[in-house]
Amino acid sequence: MPQNNLLEYIETSESADERDILERIGRDLWGDRWTIRVRHYADGTTRRFIMHSEGRIGSDDHDFDPDARVLERERIWIDVDDQQMYRDRVHVREETETIEDELLPEESDQRRT
Asked: What is the H or E stretch that residue 86 is in?
């Protein structure tokens, strides 16, 4: 992981757009193996982070049960105004269960009723 050289990314970018800077960081660190996640919140704020994973990790490398499917993800997010770059590595174990499933009517169908 490079030093917190966000200022260098900002100064050499065509724009100070957070997404553009995250793309450059991702390409520099991981080539074409990254994704940008965007979260929009009800209060109007938006958070973006770039994420990379090498895939599933072995059972000796995590604290979940041995049969769990666990991914290690590295995430980076920036604060352009404060000129700070943050990084973390997390172990992710995702389990989902569908409790309800329904087909929603198309918008044009709803207008007719």
From this structure: strand 84-92
For the chain, what are the domain ranges?
6-94
CA distance 57 to 36: 22
Mean pLDDT of all residues in 9-29: 82
Sign of CA dihedral 93, 2, 45, 15: negative
Residue with tokens 């049960």: 65
Burial class, 48, CB count within 10 angstroms (exposed 0-12 / middle 13-18 / buried 19+):
middle
- The alpha-helical segments, DSSP class H, found in the chain are 6-12, 18-30, 107-112
Contacts 24+ apart (CB under 8 A), 92-96: 93/62, 93/64, 93/68, 93/69, 94/69
Question: Bridge-partner residues for 79, per DSSP?
Answer: 84
Taking only the tens place, the pLDDT of each residue in 84-104 is: 889 998 888 877 788 899 998
Tokens, residue 58: 């072995």
